[in-house]
TrEMBL record:
GO molecular function, one term: 2 iron, 2 sulfur cluster binding
InterPro entries in alphabetical order: 2Fe-2S-bd, 2Fe-2S-bd_dom_sf, 2Fe-2S_ferredoxin-like_sf, 2Fe-2S_ferredoxin-type, 2Fe2S_fd_BS, Beta-grasp_dom_sf, Diverse_Oxidoreductases, XdhC_XDHase
Domain 2Fe-2S ferredoxin-type: 4-80
UniProt-listed Pfam families: Fer2 (PF00111), Fer2_2 (PF01799)
SUPFAM superfamilies assigned to the protein according to its UniProt record, in alphabetical order: 2Fe-2S ferredoxin-like, CO dehydrogenase ISP C-domain like
Keyword set, alphabetical order: 2Fe-2S, Iron, Iron-sulfur, Metal-binding, Oxidoreductase
Gene Ontology biological process terms from the UniProt entry: purine nucleobase metabolic process
Gene3D superfamilies: 3.10.20.30, [2Fe-2S]-binding domain
Protein name per its UniProtKB record: 2Fe-2S iron-sulfur cluster binding domain-containing protein
Pathway: Alkaloid degradation; nicotine degradation
Amino acid sequence: MAHKHIQCTVNGQKLSLEVAVGESLLDMLRNRLHLTGTKKGCGVGECGACTVLLDGEAIDSCLFLAVWADGKDIRTIEGESKEGKLSKVQEAFVEEGAVQCGFCTPGFVMSVTALVEKGCQCEREGLKKELSGHMCRCTGYHNIVNAAEKAIGEP
C-alpha cells in the first residue's frame, strides 16, 4: 500500500508521520499514536464513538483518512485534561453522572466540547439534535444531555 508523509498537530504536539494512503484517522490515532480513548465503534460514521476535533470541528475519525489530516490540528479525549485537571465538559459529565460503561463518553465529550467552544446557545431539544449522531447503549441520554446543558451554560 502506498504511503504519504504528513505533518499535523495532535493534542498540541506537532508530529511528522508516514501514513498509509487508505488508513483512517481513527486507526492512525489508535494504532500509531496509542491514543486509545478514541473508540472504534461501528466503523461507518453512525455511532459517534470515534469523534475527535479537527480544526475545532467534531468529526467521525473512522470516515476521515489520515492523509487528509496533513496540516490539521487534531484533539482527542486525551488532550482535554490539563495538568491532571478535567476540562469543564469532562467535569459536567462526572457531576451529572453522564457515564455508564464509558465507551461512548469520549465521543460525546468531544462533540460537546466543540459546541461549547463555538458558543452554542442550544436549548435542550437543539442539544439532542446536535448529539443525535452518537449512540449509547447504557443510558436514556437524559444525563448526557444534562451534562451538555451544564457545560454550555457555564462560563
